[in-house]
Amino acid sequence: MFVHSASAHRPIERLSQVIPAACPRLPDADAVLPYLRRMDAARTYSNFGPLLTAFEARLAERFETGTAVVTCVNATQALTLTLQALDLPKGGLVAIPSYTFVATAHAVVAAGLIPLFLDVDPEDWMLRPATVREALKQAPGPIAATIVVAAFGAMPDLDGWRALRDETGLPVVLDAAAAFDTARTADIPTVVSLHATKVLGVGEGGFLATTNAGLAARLRQLTTFGFRGARVSDIAATNAKLSEYAGAVGLAALDTWDSDRLRFLRTARLVRAAMTYLPEIRFQSGWGDDWVTSVCSVRLPDGSVGAIERSLQDQDIQTRRWWDRGCHANPAFNECPRGDLQVTETLGRSVLGLPFAVDMGEHEISRVAAALGSALASL
Ligand SMILES: *Cc1c(COP(=O)(O)O)cnc(C)c1O
């Protein structure tokens, strides 16, 4: 049955037998209350008050010294504004993997740039530096930057990306939206999401971590009307600040992160153990062993996603095709240029998000494993 620590976390009572694809858990009211009381005393509710400032400082401690953290209303905006802060030529191409959440591509378009969809590695599902190197020669126009995406929280080969950046001068940004756990260096500008569905959430929120002080200052300015200390707009900008309420939830989430991380690891290991007799299922490398994330995306036999999904649905088990067939398949991006996307197409037919939550019980895990076993057997 359900195992939980002595913390404020309690199992969720589910009235139905349906196992949801995701069941986020943010700090509960009691954990946030002490921070809300500080707000009552400080009478500061936004504009970089003490809570958000403390939250940013604690986030920065997770990265190398000299890292600045700039929070933002969400990771999509943080990506858009980071691209703007890089001052790339208008209408330039930004090489991105098609296999990502649509937010990556939306951020590029919102920054006045054009996504160039490229394929990913069949093993780790991520864009490879070699693919971008190739595209630099063959793209339909000059490539202004590239965004590499940390697939569902796995970390790409950062050394390879540093080498590409240093050799070509191409700006590299890391969309580590789902990678709160594994994003621990910031010499490549790194954007992390704090959305409720991610592994550490405040509801809506995100941040950029960077060792480039100039980039951090520019992004900050873009999130707050172009102000730089004084109430003078130096540049065209917007309002993308987080409030003290988000800071309060973020601080409470960080207070229990170490134990929450262990609970994610433990649940993931139970999932892996329950599925050891299903050799057709492949987990992401290191998932639940070296790193944690809030989703359980697995690789199934090629072409089986639809059948497995229906079979699980019939057994009241919800699944989610988190990145579905890739961004390029969405009507919004019909006009965007693309390379060969064979691997992405294959992943669209074979990757499925199984139910996963930090407090998923052993009974639920067994049910999913059994249902998956019978679904695979009847393929
Ligand atoms: C979740 C996610 C985003 C968007 O993050 P928000 O904070 O919801 O805007 C962007 N990219 C990837 C890869 C994501 O998983």
What does this structure look like?
There is one protein chain. The protein contains twelve helices and nine strands. With 379 residues, the chain is α/β, with parallel strands linked by helices. It has two domains: 7-25 and 257-377, Aspartate Aminotransferase, domain 1 (Alpha-Beta Complex); 29-254, Type I PLP-dependent aspartate aminotransferase-like (Major domain) (Aspartate Aminotransferase, domain 2), CATH 3.40.640. It has a seven-stranded mixed sheet, sandwiched between helices. The protein has a two-stranded antiparallel ribbon with strand order 8-9. Strand 2 (93-97), helix 4 (102-110) and strand 3 form a beta-alpha-beta unit. Helix 3 (75-85) runs parallel beside helix 4. The radius of gyration is 21 Å and the shape is globular. Pyridoxal-5'-phosphate (PLP) binds next to helix 3 and helix 4.
Alpha plus pi helix count: 12
Q: Averaged pLDDT, please?
A: 95
Number of separate domains: 2
Number of strands: 9
Listing every helix as H and every strand as E from the N terminus to the C terminus, the arrangement reads HHEHEHEHEHEEEHHHEHHEH
Within the CATH hierarchy, at the fold level, what is the topology of the largest domain? Aspartate Aminotransferase, domain 2
How much strand content do the residues show?
A: 5-15%
Q: What best-fitting shape do the alpha-carbon axes yield? A: globular
Helical content band: 25-40%
Write out the strand line-up for the largest beta sheet, numbering strands in chain order. 1-7-6-5-4-2-3
